[in-house]
Design brief:
The complex is a heterodimer of chains A (about 110) and B (about 110).
Chain A lengths: L3 E4 L2 E4 L5 E7 L5 E8 L3 E10 L2 E4 L6 E3 L9 E3 L8 E8 L6 E2 L3 E5 L1
Parallel strand pairs in A: 2-11
Antiparallel strand pairs in A: 1-3, 3-8, 4-5, 4-9, 5-6, 7-8, 9-10, 9-11
Chain B lengths: L2 E4 L4 E4 L4 E3 L1 E4 L5 E7 L5 E7 L5 E4 L2 E4 L9 E3 L8 E8 L5 E3 L3 E6 L1
Parallel strand pairs in B: 2-12
Antiparallel strand pairs in B: 1-4, 3-9, 5-6, 5-10, 7-8, 8-9, 10-11, 10-12
Classes of the chains: A mainly beta (about 110), B mainly beta (about 110).
């Protein structure tokens, strides 16, 4: 189906483990983004990408790694998960960087 | 830096009531302004946007006017329905492809 998808939708992991959240879009949008949503903070940008092989840090990048080898995929990796990374993670894409289209989110719990 | 301030919720209304959610911003230059809506269990969807002063964005009965003199972008709807229950986010973009979000306002409409 066309659109933007995220997997898994729910994930429980333990402190110190590596976790990868997947994001896939079928529109061939140039821009892709990762946000985390925490109560009282709205959404905060973690990383973004303007095109394949071009990524840059957002507001809260520490503890996260991204890559973008293909236009349609933008995985987010937590190299060593911490409890403070418990959150809901949203991926978004945009054809030109202005209006963004969001995925359904991944709820991550770090025990 | 850029910031967006929204009225705190939660907001509880009866059907057919008038809804206003206040949003003010701080940014240099002339940002684009957005309202996104998040229904329970879903990702964010663009509700409306305005790209320059005095522009009015509208969609699904919602309206917001870009007021540069008061740096505001208040969201209004004249007669809400139960299906309007959601979290509403105000956001801005300065054309650098990144969105800055407010904390979100939870709206519950009772039948």
């Amino acid at each position: 189906d066309a659109g933007i998808t995220q997997s898994p939708r729910y994930k429980i992991t333990e402190t110190g483990r590596q976790v990868t959240l997947m994001c896939h879009q079928t529109w061939s949008h140039s821009y892709m983004f990762w946000y985390r949503q925490d109560l009282g903070h709205g959404l905060r940008l973690i990383y973004y990408s303007a095109a394949a092989d071009i990524t840059d840090k957002g507001e809260v990048p520490d503890g996260y790694v991204v890559s973008r080898s293909k236009t349609e995929n933008f995985p987010l990796t937590l190299e060593s998960a911490t409890r403070s990374q418990t959150s809901v993670y949203f991926c978004a894409s945009s054809p030109a960087g202005d209006t963004q289209y969001f995925g359904p989110g991944t709820r991550l719990t770090v025990l | 830096g850029d910031s967006v301030t929204q009225m705190e919720g939660p907001v509880t209304l009866s059907e057919e009531a008038f809804l206003t959610i206040n949003c003010t911003y701080t940014a240099t230059g002339y940002p684009s302004l957005f309202w996104y809506v998040q229904y329970p269990g879903e990702g964010l969807q663009l509700l409306l946007k305005a790209t320059k002063a005095d522009d009015k964005g509208s969609n699904k009965g919602f309206e917001a006017t870009y007021r540069k003199e008061t740096t505001s972008f208040h969201l209004e709807k004249g007669s809400v329905q139960v299906s309007d229950s959601a979290v509403y986010f105000c956001a801005l973009s300065r054309g650098d492809y990144k969105l800055s979000f407010g904390a979100g306002t939870t709206v519950t409409v009772r039948a």
